[in-house]
Amino acid sequence: MKKTGTEVVFRWFEDLWAQQGGEAAVRPPQDASYAISGDGSLVPISPEAFMRAHRDLKEGMTDIHLGFEFFASDGDQVICAMVVKARDKVSGKPLAFRSQFDGRLQGGQLVSAANAIDYFGAE
């Protein structure tokens, strides 16, 4: 049975944010693009740099929860906005930041992704 775009993307996020080694199963799509927000502007980074930054960030957090503010799937296109909430592993203080995602699927696979994360937009 073919998975829907929603199922594919939710699984991708689940693997990406899993506490126990999820990114080993997550390979960025060939034409993925990522950006980090700084002072209101987006700075593009490579998928490899994104995965390193994501791994480093995740290693410092515990109790990670994703809250989708918006999610839409139209055929092969999926877009969403979410807030990531967690606790700092050292201090135990809560932290939060926003992420926007735009993905394209083909044959039940995520083949294109644009992900913008606003680390400075913490609640």
Give an overview in words.
21% of the residues lie in helices and 49% in strands. A hairpin with a 2-residue loop joins strand 3 and strand 4. The chain has helices spanning 5-17, 47-59; strands at 33-38, 41-45, 61-74, 77-88, 94-106, 109-118. It has a six-stranded mixed beta sheet. The mean pLDDT is 78. By secondary structure, it is an alpha+beta fold. It contains two helices and six strands.
Task: Offer a concise description of the structure.
This protein has 123 residues and is an alpha+beta fold. 21% of the residues lie in helices and 49% in strands.
Set out the fold topology:
Layout: H1 5-17, E1 33-38, E2 41-45, H2 47-59, E3 61-74, E4 77-88, E5 94-106, E6 109-118
Parallel strand pairs: 1-6
Antiparallel strand pairs: 1-2, 3-4, 4-5, 5-6
Strand order of the largest sheet: 2-1-6-5-4-3
* Assembly status: single chain
Helical stretch count? 2
* Portion in strands: over 45%
Q: Low-confidence spans: pLDDT under 50, at least 5 residues?
A: none
Biggest pleated-sheet summary: 6 strands, mixed
Main attributes of the structure:
single chain; 123 residues; alpha+beta; six-stranded mixed sheet; 6 strands; 49% strand; globular
